[in-house]
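To: structure desk
From: M.T.
Subject: fold request, one chain
Message: Could you run this one when you get a chance? Sequence is below, nothing fancy, just the single chain.
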Amino acid sequence: KFGLEYIYPDLVHVSIWEDGTVIRSYKDLDRTCQELAQRTSDKDAESYRRFVQMSQQMLPLMTSGLYSPPFPLGAFVAMMDQSDEGRFLLDLMQRSALDVVEGYFDSELLKVHIVRMVTENLQMPDELGTGMGAFVMPGIIHTYGCSMPRGGSGELSKALVRALEHLGGEVRTNAEVSRVIVEGGQAVGLELVGGETFRARDGVIGAIHPHRLRRFVSETPEPVLRRAERVTQSTFSINLTHIALRERLRLKVGNDSNAMMTELMDFYDTREMCLEYDKLRRGETTHRLIAGGDNTIFDPTRAPDGSGVFYGVNFAPYRLNDGGAAAWDARKEDVADAALAQYRKFFDGLDESNMIGRKVCSPLDHERGSPNSMVEGDAHGCAPFFYQSMGHRPKADLGSFRVPEVECLYLTGPFMHPGGGVFGAGRAVAIQMMDDLGIEFEKVCAGAIEG
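Reply: Done. C-alpha cells follow.
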C-alpha cells in the first residue's frame, strides 16, 4: 500500500571458498540436499535434511514469541523444562553454534557453512548461550527464505514515513532530543537540544540504549541505571565498505552462485575459522572474515543500467588493540584495503578502473551515526547471549519495554526483545503500550486492515 516491495532470491545463502568449492543453500531443501551430497557426503546431506526438518517443526513455537512482549526469563525456562521438546531447545540455547553443528555433522565445510552464516548475528562461533541461531536459521531459510527491499533498506524507512503521514502523523528530522521530560514519575514529553519541547498525550516511546538511559532519563532509579550500564555489547562489529561500480561484479565461480548472503572464505575447517575470530577478541583486525556482493544482481534499480553497487562486510573489533576505538579514523581505509585485496580473490570487477567511488564505515562510524542505539558500533544493540534474551533483554528491569518508576515511557530498538535485525520488533512494544492504555491490539489491527 505504501510502496514497499521485497525481493526473495531462490538462492538464500552460499559459501564460496578460494579454491572454487561452493556450498549453496536454496530455499528448496531437496535441491540443497542434492548438492550437499555431491559436496560433502550422502550421510551429511541426510543429516542436514533431518536437522532442517527438526528446526521447521520448532519454528512456530520459536517465532510466536518474536512479535509479542516476552515471557520473564525464569517463567520461560520453567515452561520449557516441562517437556522433552522444551528441554531440547533449552539445551541448544545455552550451547554455542559450534557445539550445535559438531553434534550433527561430519563435514568441516558444512560446519563452516552454517556457523559462518550464524556469526552475521555478531556472535562468536564458540560463545556459549548463542547456539539457537545455528538451529533456527536453516529452518528459516528453507521455510521462508530471506529477502531484501527493492531499492535498498532505506525504502523500508520511507514506506513507514508514508504510512505514518497517511494516518495523520508527522516525522521530524534533524531534531536531536536532549532528554525525556518526567513530571510526577511520568514521562510527559521530550525536550530537544535547542530547547523546543513536545508534550505527549499518552506516552513516550524511545530508542534509548541502556548505556544511554542515564543521559536521557536521569529520574530512573540508580540501581536500575547501574544494572543497565552493565549490559554486554557484542564481541565484534563491522568495518563496512560500499563501492559504486561502472559495471556489475562477476563471481569467479559464476554468477549463478550469487545469493542473499554470500560468505567468502579461504579457511576450510572450524579450527582455522575460530582462530580468525579469536583475533577480534584481542582487538586485532582480520581480512579473512568477509562477506558481501553486488546488490544490483537481484535489484537493478539500485544503480544506473549495467552498473553495480558493492556491499562488503568485514568483521572487526570496536576497540583496536593499538589505540582503541579512536584509532579507527586513521586505520579504517587501510583495513578496508586489506579486505578489498581478499575480495578480489573471489570477484572480477573490483579493480580500480571499475570503481567510481568508495565509502568505508568503521565500527566507530556506526556508533556516531546512531549513538543512542548502536553503542560500540553494535548494529544489533547488545550481545545476543542467553542471559540477555526474552524478558532479560537487555536486563530484567527493562525487559517489559517499560522503565521502572517512570510511567508511560517505553523502550524500543535492537537492544530490546527479540534482538537485532529487521523483525518488525516494534509490534511487541505497541502491544505492551496498548495493553497498558486499555486498547485492544487485535481490534486496532483489524480496523487498519479493513481501512
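Reply (cont.): The two ends are 11 Å apart (CA to CA). Let me know if you need anything else for the meeting.
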